[in-house]
Automatic annotation (TrEMBL):
Xref: InterPro entries: HepT-like, HepT_RNase_toxin
Any one annotated GO CC term: toxin-antitoxin complex
Keywords, comma-separated and alphabetical: Hydrolase, Nuclease, Nucleotide-binding, Phosphoprotein, Toxin-antitoxin system, Transferase
Lineage, uppermost ranks: Bacteria, Bacillati, Cyanobacteriota, Cyanophyceae, Oscillatoriophycideae
Protein name: Nucleotidyltransferase
Pfam families for the chain: HepT-like
Molecular-function GO terms, alphabetical: hydrolase activity; nucleotide binding; RNA nuclease activity; transferase activity
Length: 126
């Protein structure tokens, strides 16, 4: 793998890390799915989280082209397909976002994804 490939992989990991950090920040005051609809500020949180999920899904698609599938297989508890799929759903049906799905994703899936990304990132010395 060339230095250019490593640099791109580093950039992708960095983008995913940043997206996850933003999701945690935006999600912090949300205690239930209904909170997303209580006021305009929380609706903006839902929008911001959705945008980060789109960006993360796209970055995972790019990462799949750069690292071995076996790297992803080492983390069977991460729904890699779902992470890419939510990107497609949010991008194409934006006005049909279900707060319950976003809440569940933030509460349960994002922490698991963060652990896997940090482990992969450390293996590439990023």
């Amino acid at each position: 793998m060339s230095d250019k490939d490593y640099a791109l992989i580093y950039e992708i990991f960095d983008q995913i890390d940043e997206g996850i950090s933003r999701i945690f920040y935006y999600f912090a005051p949300i205690q239930s799915p209904i909170d997303f609809t209580k006021n305009y500020d929380n609706q903006m949180r839902l929008d911001a989280i959705s945008m980060m999920l789109i960006a993360i899904g796209e970055s995972i698609k790019k990462l799949e082209k750069k690292i071995s599938p076996s790297q992803f297989e080492r983390f069977p508890n991460v729904d890699w397909r779902g992470a890419k799929g939510i990107r497609d759903i949010l991008s194409h049906t934006y006005f049909q976002i279900q707060p319950e799905v976003i809440f569940q994703t933030c509460r349960e899936d994002i922490p698991i994804l963060q652990t896997a990304i940090q482990a992969l990132k450390s293996e590439y010395n990023c």
